[in-house]
Amino acid sequence: MTENASLLPPVDRRPTAYEALRDRVLGDPRLNRMLGWSVPALITLLAAALRLINLAHPHQIMFDETYYVKDSWSLWNLGYEAKWGDGADTQLLTGDDSALQAEGSFVVHPPLGKWIIALGMAAMGPGSSFGWRVTTALLGSLTVLLVYLVALQLTRSRTVASIAAGLLAIDGLGIVMSRIALLDGILTFFILLGALFVLKDRQRTMPLLDAIGRDDDEDAPLRMIGPVLWNRPWLIAAGVTLGAASAVKWSGLYALAVFGLHVVVTDALARRRAGIALWPTDAVFRQGPASFLLLVGPALLTYLVSWTGWLVTAGGYDRQSDANPLAALWKYHESILAFHVGLATPHPYASPAWQWPLLLRPTAIWVGEKPTGCGTDHCIAVISSVPNPMIWYASVAAALYLLYWLVRGLIQRTPVGPELTFSLVGLIATYVPWLLVGDRTIFQFYTITMVPFLVIGLALALRELAGRAPAPRHRRQSGQRTVVVYLAVVVLVSAFYYPVWTGMSVPYEFWLIHNWLPGWI
Fold first, then answer.
1. In what order do the strands lie in the sheet with 379-384?
2. Which residues are within 8 A (CB) of 290 and not within 5 positions of it... i.e. 6 or more apart?
3. What was the pLDDT predicted at 13?
4. Do 457 and 398 touch, CB atoms closer than 8 A?
5. pTM above 0.90, yes or no
6. Residue from 320, 298, 301 nearest 311 by CA
7. Quick one: which of 518, 292, 486, 290 has its CA closest to 398?
């Protein structure tokens, strides 16, 4: 057997051209530092350009902007959402807000996202469609930077982080939801920022727990419990940002709950590695309450602060239902909850959550009337929330791949790194809860909160496809070329779809070939 093995050709593990260039760059401190800030900056600038150029088009109130534009302006002027008279949408296009009334309006989403939209309106005026959308576009661009930072925190690989951020920068759903005054793009920003802070907390606290296992004290084997860690500023920051997410839309509560459980589980596993005998109960019943207070306390406070305008004024909906403003707010929330539970209004673009991975029914955000400028009489201008299909379907496949590796690791009892689990945790927070509300009217564009975790998972899968150092050279060469070809195709497909993400006037036949499935029309 040994003689036969010796006759086999040696495995060629020389670096590929990409690996040689990478090692050369990383070996140069100046180039290394320059890439450390220039690459994410350039990707973020690209994202900003795709989101900000011609942002004022169309100068119309699109889709659910009819709610959030008017609510935002009334918040800015009155401190609460108020009713508007007939014709308000048309009048606002000229900056006329005379249809604004003083009577409070029943709204079903917390105010923070609308306060953020109101900042742009305050700066540009109520009649500026650029002003309605600019804060959403800026936060959408910063979300791309957050994807880079989260991926870098997970993998310590600038290549993986750059690919993940670049995919989000050019994805259609990310672009469209950054170019419209809706709440979902703002919600995505705060959820991802909270996820980054959870990772920062893990980075800071895990070494403290791991150090217990390295303790050579003679009493170490008798250690039954570990320390209760209160000095966790990143966990407090995560509470603030996830509370802000909940103050944009209540679905942010899912992220708060899931990431909170993630913190407890990672604490428990760290205590197990440290040799603490009662590690499950230590993490749940001793550290758990402390972590709860550090995370949920700031979240609750942030949420309450977002309602300040409603609390300190007298005209908001249900504000006078109780002399105690907090009791009145509680009654208002009971009404909001009843609305959400009973929301089952038919809508032509409704899409239950089980359909989302298949991308069966993306939302048509806007269809222009009598578009001009395409050089033919048979034109159309649309804004569709369809993502880049090459990114979407590959990301769903990558999520299944990561799930397979997680299950395999659990069965074989082999360590599973946080880079494999964290994007799945994000998907649990942003997707799984929607599967439990099958009767509710929901839309495909809600998946914008999923996309950052999907592209991070896809970047990780592409890294595995490209191969790493232990693999033979020919395997790594073919894998890296496949990844390059895939990314080139993704860029071309985004360029192909960009007109239908931004409402450009195009020939009708050109628009038709973008509708790959019947439900995309």
1. 364-367, 379-384, 505-507
2. 228, 229, 230
3. 59
4. yes
5. yes
6. 320
7. 486
Instruction: Give the DSSP per-residue string, 313-329.
Output: -S-STTGGG-SSHHHHH
Beta strands in 368-438 (DSSP E): 379-384
Whole-angstrom Cα distance, residue 135 to residue 123? 11
pLDDT at position 129 over 60 = yes
Which distant-in-sequence residues (6+ apart) come within 8 Å of 467 by Cβ? 475, 476, 479, 480
Q: Which pair of tokens denotes residue 218?
A: 């003679």
Average pLDDT (153-158) is: 92
Residue 366, strand partner residues: 383
pLDDT at 18: 61
Which residue in this structure is represented by tokens 């530092």? Answer: 33
**Tokens representing residue 355 in the block:** 């359909």
**Straight-line distance from the first to the last Cα atom of the chain, in angstroms, rounded to the nearest whole number:** 63
Which distant-in-sequence residues (6+ apart) come within 8 Å of 327 by Cβ?
none
Residue 188 and residue 180: Cα distance in Å, rounded? Answer: 14
Tokens for 258, please give them.
Answer: 């899931």
Residues 6+ apart with CB under 8 A from 389: 359, 493, 516
Helix H, strand E, coil C: the string for 112-126 is HHHHHHHHHHHHHCC
User: 263 exposed, middle or buried (CB, 10 Å; 0-12, 13-18, 19+)?
Assistant: buried
**Which residues, at least 6 apart from 41, have a Cβ–Cβ distance to it below 8 Å?**
none
Q: Please, which residues have CB within 8 angstroms of residue 159's CB and are 6 or more apart in sequence?
A: 22, 463
Q: What is the mean pLDDT of the chain?
A: 89
Q: What's 11's DSSP letter?
A: P
Per-residue pLDDT tens digits for 49-94? 999 999 999 999 999 899 999 999 999 999 999 999 999 999 999 9
